[in-house]
């Protein structure tokens, strides 16, 4: 199983277009040891030619251009992106769907019922796509059953519901539904290896910890360093919890959670990193602290073979 990080940043990207925080300013001006990152997405493949896109970010076209393996050019009109999963209905995970409209066949789209509802109402990209290529919708099971995608033979996928919030434009924003947000485990049936991906992880419920403990690769919520980082910087009124994210530091934070996972050989990688997060500074003390805990920070183009 091959996994590639297309976009390792949270919504907004790094640098964010209108942001002049220490990090954004520093990466823009080249005064900081940090690298640019596009918005949240990975791809998974069994054969290195047919890929499942997990989250379609607003940066999708740039991400495709940056990864030639997504452009096998087997026909006049062709893409290595065989199908798409979106893990929630957030802007940073779904607006790229509109960029796939030139397909000549309906786009295979794997989403939960809750996400499909949002993508047909509050942010109706599925309804809009009906006027172009259309969508071939596949339901993601939430009962623990795994599902497969024809283009990825030998890979099974398990979805787990996460407790978080639907986006602000969701008709059920104040009435959370199972399936508003999911985590995914990719299982390679030949190697037996498992990768767990959850760019948004608000609470570590027992079923989430169980999935994390069984994984050989963890690609998990790296949005914020402290719970009130955005407030401290005067950039937002929302805490990490308000945003449905678990900060890295503090009691019960992601560092502590990852420390509790002791599976031999497991790789622990933070992904979906907000532009305010000091872990973006490659030679900073926060990055050193992560390294002491065996935790890596994802970057665009990071690849895994499991
Ligand atoms: C989030 O996960 O909180 C998002 O990145 C927010 C957004 O896309 O605006
Ligand atoms: Mn996001
Ligand atoms: Zn910034």
TrEMBL record:
HAMAP family: PQQ_syn_PqqB (MF_00653)
Stored Gene3D superfamilies: Ribonuclease Z/Hydroxyacylglutathione hydrolase-like (3.60.15.10)
Record-linked SUPFAM superfamilies: Metallo-hydrolase/oxidoreductase
BP GO terms, sorted: pyrroloquinoline quinone biosynthetic process
Sorted UniProt keywords: PQQ biosynthesis, Transport
Family: Belongs to the PqqB family.
Designated name of the protein: Coenzyme PQQ synthesis protein B
Function: May be involved in the transport of PQQ or its precursor to the periplasm.
